[in-house]
Amino acid sequence: MAGLLKTFVMMLVFAAQFAYASRSAVLIDSHDVNLTHFQMSYFIDHSGTLSFEEARAQTFTLSPNQVSLGTEAKTTWSQIEIKNLTDQPRRLFLHQPQAYHNRQLVFYEQQTEGYKQQQLEMDTAASSPLMYRGSAIFEFWLDAKESKRLYVKSVSFSHQWFSLLILDEDHSRRALLGIGAHNDIALMVGILLALVVYNFLLYFSSNKRENIFYSLYLISGALWVALSYGLLASLFNIYGADTLKMHLSLISMPIFLILFMMDIFQTGKHHLREHRFLQCILLLLVLNFIYGFFDIVPALRHTSSLAALMMLVTTSVSISLLRKGDPLAKYFLFGHSLFVVFSGIAVLFYKGIISFNYISSHGVGIGIILESLMLAFIISYRIKILEDIKASQDELKLLAVTDPLTQLYNRRYFYTEANYLLEQARKTRMPLTLLIMDIDRFKAINDGYGHQVGDQVIVALANLLRLNSRDGELVACFGGEEFVMLLPNTSEEKAQQRAEQIRSAVQSLSLDQQGDSLNFTISIGGVAINSERETIDTALNLADIALYEAKNTGRNCVRFSECQLASLTS
């Protein structure tokens, strides 16, 4: 009875092993071999000291050929059951495309007697025939109808994630020489570097610190994306310990992001509570960054936890700023939420909690790109806000120096600008002429047609003066129906011609008043200013005397002051 029970148990064990092998075996049943998805199994060697004989005796866990096992699986053994169902021997290649971020890879091919071993040390991988553009390639043969086991020992620096592919020679060559192998990563890096150049140009034009912090964030992100997703390995054959210090970019990236937040939201001036939270997480990140210079591996081990804490703090701060009504907070929160979501997916992937796919394995890179684009929008939007503020200030300044009815400069602005033009005339010894004009019988217009029509007459004259003024000339409303024009580089003779043209144009002007035509005239007084002796006030008084003379001699005429001539001959 005991013998029968023992035989039955052995049969069950054999059946279980057969079922397991059948369930996980990779079957080669055609000429083309391009196996990118299949079942394998793995074992985590927490001690990191097991030999091949000891490791293959362990219990392996069934899994897909793409796995992420977290930071506690630094040494992992992968086992592949493979069987050639064809009648021809097959030359095949095992690829590990993510080999660039490992410390060591060892390939074991179990044979009838013993095993064949191929070892790849990443510190010397640049000169190894087993390494090409960041991928490890191990060649093996399968005879007709042969079954065998393959093992891959993978030793990582920090977290363990990889995929294994089984390819024939043709597909292996295509995979290694494929032009589009890193096109997506090159596009990500290209976008980030383009934004860097743009923001450095913005910094040189505006001298805003936010552009520097944003550019440093982009540089850190571009370096980490290129490093983490194999672009640097593919282009420059950089592997192993030589790349470790470059992973500090993953720590520096959130440092510059927080500095950007502090600057663009001005938390130190306006949001002290949020500023203190940002300072605390910034301190932790800086300490971990400094620690990374001395021992990068444990620093990277802490990075995932610090990243989660940073995401919590920065998201909470942006929500708080949004509730306080900051106009940029909603855009930052949207962009940062995209980064948090995709980076959170990546953190779960790196810790081995979720499965291997493109989004999970490239989550941080996707999050960086999306947030970078939104931060670029925030910078552009902030520039627009500042320009709107400047435009409002300019408008207020213009209102302060403009007559509200005619939109011409007022008396205050005239004095400021006229004194400057007088000084220029004195230095250059160029002529300067002043005209004063007044609407004839304006009180009669107001009394006969009403003040509204009187205002229309004033506006019509202002528009005519504006149209008849030249570049560099100063036209102003001195109040009521009185206007002045200052004509630089204009002699008295030319000024008289200009004044006569203006007077004639006004006389020909006709305003429609409910079918009736309203015409009006102006009187003009002028003076050629002696810039060596006279002030603007003196010139205004002389021109006013000439205007008074024009009024007394019948109106609708031009008179120039003779007082200045007398002063020259005295």
Automatic annotation (TrEMBL):
Catalytic activity: 2 GTP = 3',3'-c-di-GMP + 2 diphosphate
CDD domains from the UniProt entry: GGDEF (cd01949)
One of the record's GO cellular component terms: plasma membrane
Full protein name: diguanylate cyclase
Class in the EC hierarchy, top level: transferase
Domain (GGDEF): residue spans on this chain: 430-563
GO MF annotations, alphabetized: diguanylate cyclase activity
Domain of life: Bacteria
Segments traversing the membrane: 185-204, 216-240, 246-265, 277-294, 306-322, 331-350, 362-381
Essential cofactor(s): Mg(2+)
NCBIfam families attached to this UniProt entry: GGDEF (TIGR00254)
Source taxonomy: Bacteria, Pseudomonadati, Pseudomonadota, Gammaproteobacteria, Oceanospirillales
EC number(s) recorded for this UniProt protein: 2.7.7.65
Signal sequence residues: 1-21
Keywords on record: Membrane, Signal, Transmembrane, Transmembrane helix
